[in-house]
Amino acid sequence: MSNHMHLIARAREGHDISAIIRDFKKFTAKAIVKQIKEEPESRREWMLRHFAFRATAIERVKDFKFWEDGSHAILLDTPLKWEQRFSYLHNNPVKGGLVAEPHHYLLSSALDYAGIKGLVNIDMEW
Fold first, then answer.
1. 68 and 80 share a domain?
2. Could you tell me where the DSSP H helices lie in 39-100?
3. Are 1 and 60 found together in one domain?
4. Nearest to 108 by CA among 91, 95, 96
5. Cβ–Cβ under 8 Å, residues 38 and 45
6. In this structure, are residues 65 and 50 in contact, taking their beta carbons and an 8 Å threshold?
7. Distance (Å, whole) CA 100 – CA 97
8. Exposed e or buried b for every residue in 31-57, given b needs 16+ CB within 10 A?
9. pLDDT (tens digit, 9 = 90+) per residue, 50-91?
């Protein structure tokens, strides 16, 4: 999706999912801002100003604020919940009008589940 992402993750025994999400956001924010700075992008200056402005409101953020605060965690503790979430995630780009079929969205695990190697490494062994 162009303005948000969905992630299904699990924490290994003894690890905190909140810390994993925090570190994921920190790492990806730095990598994405670096990419924006280095690659040709018509909206570069606007985006960097926007991220810098958002950082001014938060003491703990130094230069740029890329991610929104918080997340919407949903415990997938039954097979039905897994099925519902996968269906929702895979159909989200279709519902948003970005593609005609779930496996047409290049950043979706729907490709892997359709037998096509996607751009993102997917661990299908749960």
1. no
2. 44-56, 79-95
3. yes
4. 91
5. no
6. no
7. 7
8. eebeebeeeeeeeeeebbeebeeebee
9. 999 888 877 777 788 888 888 888 889 999 999 999 999 999
